[in-house]
TrEMBL record:
The keyword Nucleus does not apply. This is Cyclopropane-fatty-acyl-phospholipid synthase. It comes from Methylobacillus flagellatus (strain ATCC 51484 / DSM 6875 / VKM B-1610 / KT). GO terms for molecular function: methyltransferase activity. One of its GO terms (biological process) is lipid biosynthetic process. Belongs to the CFA/CMAS family.
Amino acid sequence: MFSALLQNQIQKSVAGLPVSVSWNGERIAGDADAKVAILVNDAKVLAVLAKPTLGGLARAYVEGWMDLQGKAQDILSLGQAYCGVDARNDAETRKDWRWWRHTRSQDRRNINYHYDVSNDFYGLWLDRRRVYSCAYFADGNENLDLAQEKKLDHICRKLMLKPGETFLDIGCGWGGLVAHAVEHYGVKALGITLSDNQHAHVQRMIEERGWQDRLEVRLMDYRDLPAHQTFDKIASVGMFEHVGRKNLRVYFDKIYSLLNTGGLVMNHGITSVAVKSSGLGSGISEFIDEYVFPGGELTHVSNVLAELSMSGLEPLDAENLRPHYGKTLWEWVERLEQHSEQALSMIGERKYRIWRIYMAGSAFAFDHNWLALFQIVAGKPDAQGVMDYPYNRSHIYR
């Protein structure tokens, strides 16, 4: 009787939607010719389908309680219509009582969980430099390799890098930005990461290119950078989402102390769109925290600017690359799906499903203005408040 009630509720919830729902080879709801098919593998999913949330559907897919057939874009569009939500309207900031959430040891474990899956796995779907952050489609028609190269150059131009300057990349990934800065702008660079795999990859690159006197990579937490070592320019790309909202002041205070007077910093990171939001609603933030980015936290760009300013840094330029990240993520999803057999052999079915649904869901969120991606350039004025910065942006778009 209970199953019959659930089936009736599922039929009502999918009425008019382009989806079919099947269980044990029998269609129990929806349209047989629909763009998206839900194949139920475990009765656990029936309760999720009866009262769906986006996070609940993602969990059911990852755990194998159901299979999803159809194009990723169609699956995400269906999910939004099915759940009837605008996920950005999660207005109240969550109070997190887990004091250990961003200790050094916990942050190290969180980074290892996400980034130390397999260098070869990331190599399947990232560009040739393995740049794991939003690309820059200056014309909109670039392939992924060119768009990522343009993003690296976009950052270097914003920072006005010059030969001989010292440059720090906090969370350097697989070394794409530091390599570009060393090769094309003649800086002396340091990259830091908490990922063992990334550190080993960059170290090999340094040795292969003979850059021991031009580039260094360290396996370390940004909080442990020595106070006596300062830099002319600093970048942080796709890293501050791991810092934690309560640590933003610590983060920017550290950057201020590491930056030479008159120097520039560029912070590139995902922000929420709802002003009071701490993350996406409909169970999405909880899903991401458990399956994808443990410890990841978002805040509105206004909070980023406030914390940055309270640390003594002067905001000079802010650019929202939201459409660029949606396009980047769809490129990644397509490339992952094209290499699905190799990916499955490397990381297994469950992790493959995590990355596929996470990246497709993130692409959908950027496309629909649930998330934003801001590049913020700030400077460290001298004691009189003087900051030598151009009157226009011609140095970026020359």
